[in-house]
Amino acid sequence: MGKVIAIANQKGGVGKTTTAVNLAACLAHLGKKVLLVDIDPQGNATSGIGIEKGDIDECIYNVLVEDMKAKDVVRPTNIEHLYIIPATIQLAGAEIELVPVVSREILLKNALAPLKEQYDFILIDCPPSLGLLTLNALTAADAVLIPVQCEYYALEGLSQLLNTIRLVQKHLNTNLKLEGVVLTMLDARTNLGLQVIQEVKKYFREKVYETIIPRNVRLSEAPSHGKPIILYDVRSKGAEVYLELAKEVLARG
Ligand SMILES: Nc1ncnc2c1ncn2[C@@H]1O[C@H](COP(=O)(O)OP(=O)(O)OP(=O)(O)O)[C@@H](O)[C@H]1O
């Protein structure tokens, strides 16, 4: 059975999508069959992986709101072994449209269940909120990976997220584990970074791995330089840190 990892943090711009896209590409490069599920209405993982917005007929919206089968929305990407369920701006209304739906927190879990046997990893790129879409991701996931940008307000935001994760563990998904914390856009290990890690360890008994993604890692080497989300060529130096992260994810199993 494939492992489902939600990449979540309700804080905006902390590196969720950049981590999701590059981790997915690196896991695929290491020979794993990977499905990236974009549940952020901004659709940055979708465009970041190379799918033009005008080129999308069906997306995760049709799965969650219109009951379409997830397998019918999966698309191949230009990267071998990497597939995506795209998102479009249509998804922005889904949280309101789903209000009358009973068990609306488990729609994604149910939709992805038949795909778990077909992929080694399913990565879910969450939107910057703790709303219904993120709850669906946390409920569908086996583990959650938290990108944290180490700045002054990081700890406060993190404690909100960890509180939500604990509530999800209690009420919606007793199997949810913490996969790890990715400290993004850091130049070096700082006191704030260490404080963030300590905070996480207070909440979780599982061993949490820590990966540091430096700020502006050779952005100029990225083939999609100039786009908001950088998808590194896995052979480039910029991808090294994501390859290390992918190896840690594999080692954890
Ligand atoms: N390691 C990094 N070094 C420099 N810039 C980075 C790094 N990681 C991400 N960025 C940049 O920071 C911005 C936000 O990153 P990203 O979109 O991945 O965050 P996000 O948490 O998914 O955002 P949102 O909350 O809007 O979904 C992007 O412009 C991205 O290119």
From TrEMBL:
The record lists the organism as Anoxybacteroides tepidamans
Q: How does it assemble?
A: Dimerizes in the presence of ATP but not ADP; ATP-binding is required for double-stranded (ds)DNA-binding. Interacts with DnaA.
Question: What is the protein's given name?
Answer: Sporulation initiation inhibitor protein Soj
- Superkingdom classification of source: Bacteria
Q: Which Pfam families match?
A: AAA_31
Q: Which family does the similarity line name? A: Belongs to the ParA family.
Which residues, if any, are the signal sequence?
Answer: none
Matching SUPFAM superfamilies, A to Z?
P-loop containing nucleoside triphosphate hydrolases (SSF52540)
The catalytic activity, as recorded, is: ATP + H2O = ADP + phosphate + H(+)
InterPro entries of this UniProt entry?
Answer: AAA_dom, DNA_Partitioning_ATPase, P-loop_NTPase
